[in-house]
Structures are given as structure tokens and as C-alpha cells.
Automatic annotation (TrEMBL):
Keywords: Membrane, Transmembrane, Transmembrane helix. It comes from Arthrobacter caoxuetaonis. Residues 47-82 have a biased composition (Low complexity). It comes from the Bacteria. The chain crosses the membrane at residues 18-38. This is Uncharacterized protein. Residues 100-120 have a biased composition (Pro residues). Residues 44-122 are annotated as: Disordered.
Amino acid sequence: MTSGGTKEEGGTEGKGSWLAFGAMVAAVIAVAVLALWATGYWDKDPASSAGSAQSSSPRPSASKSPAAAKATPSPSAKTAKPSPKPLPTRSVPPQKSAYIPPPAPPPAAQPEPEPWPPAKECPVGQITARLTSVDFTESLPGYGMGYVTVTGRGVLTNGTNVPVTFPEYDIPNFYGLDERGQSSVIELYGTFDRVPPPGQPSTGYIVLGPGESVGYTATAENEFLETLTEVKYWHSSNGLASTLISFPDEYILDCSVPYETPDASMSIPNTFTG
């Protein structure tokens, strides 16, 4: 009876030891499970675990070494597509225009300024008008009216040092002087004894160079016989109304041209006797 009771007691003690050991193992396992759960090892959503791993500060898992965690790619890394490579660029040369502008012309040469013409001065010298002859003809012959036409001829000389222009209609006048020196006869019209070349129209004026002369003819028509018998001398006037100093190559200068004053030596005695 005593030995039997001892076996049962020994069996009971052995069972109690195994139960205590099992309880200790279970406690260790429970602690390990709680530790793994705390680290999220058994998280059911891989994407959320990957996201939480990215959002939280990176630290190695308790069950994996840092090298293993680095070698294992994350699910997001597996699904990410590689970025496309940039297309190669090609430089395009600039297009040349079909129109080529002509070269700019060279600058035109500037002409040299023309020098001012030398100043012109009024002439030195005198113009002389001198009668050479006086003729008398009866006016209206056959009518016995007693009228006479007086024709005077003379020479106009340019005694200045410049060319002189004379209008064709303006010839030197001539006068018939009585014994008191007063004029009683004046010619009415006349012409210069110079004509243009054949076939060429008249220019309306003549030009005498220095020292040149031209003849002229002046006429007084229908003078009374009594008037002509009172004339003692015939002589030319001492000037023209429209004399111009002429510079044909440049311009015309209006000057007061000096005339030689007629005196007794330049007068022609009257030969009319009626």
C-alpha cells in the first residue's frame, strides 16, 4: 500500500513538472508572437505594409538583416515602369532664303564745289556814236508839199574793255542844231547795219566786243523846208536808253555805260539849201 502510494505521488510530481515547463514555453511563444505583431510582421496588406515602411523611418526588421531587406525589392518597385528614354535630338541647319539682296552700291563721289565766278565790274572806257553823213530827199515827190526826208548815217563803237549788248530797236539819235544849239529835228526811227546769217532769225539785239563797231542808219521823215534851213549842225546823241554790259558766258550786268560827249569836232555842218 505504501509503495503504491509512492508511485502515484511520483507520477503526480512528474506531471506537475511537465505542466510547469509547458506553461513556460507557452509564455515565451506568446511573448514572441506579441513582439512580431508589434513589428507588423503579420500585416495582411503588403501594399499598406510597404507604404507604412516608406512613411516611417527606415529600420531593419527584427526577423531580417539589413542586407536582406536591401536586397528584397518592394512591391511598388516591382510594379513601377521605367521612365522613357529621351528621343535623340537633331540640329536642323537654318534654311537659306532664296532671295539674295544685291550688294550695296558704293557711295557716290561728291562733286567738287564750283568756284565762285570772279566779280564783274562796270567797264572802263567809252562808247562813241558819231555821224558820218546826212542826206536829204524830197518826201512825196510830185505833190509839191515841200516836205523833206533826212537820213543820217553813223558808226557806233564799243570803246570799253567788256562786251556790250545793244537792242536792235535802240539806235543813237541824231539832232539838227540851230545857231543857239537847240534841236529842231529829231529822227523817228532807224536800224543797225548788221543782219543775222542767212536763214537765221534775228535775236533782237547785237553784241559788240571791246573795240568793235557797227554802222547804223537813222531817218527823220517829212521835215519842213523852213525847219531844215535853220539847222546849222547835225550831230549824234551822247547815249542809248537801253545799253547793257554783256557777259555772254555767264550773265548780264546792268551798268551805267559812259558815252563820249559830242563836241564841235564830231558835228557835221548842214548842207541843205532848200
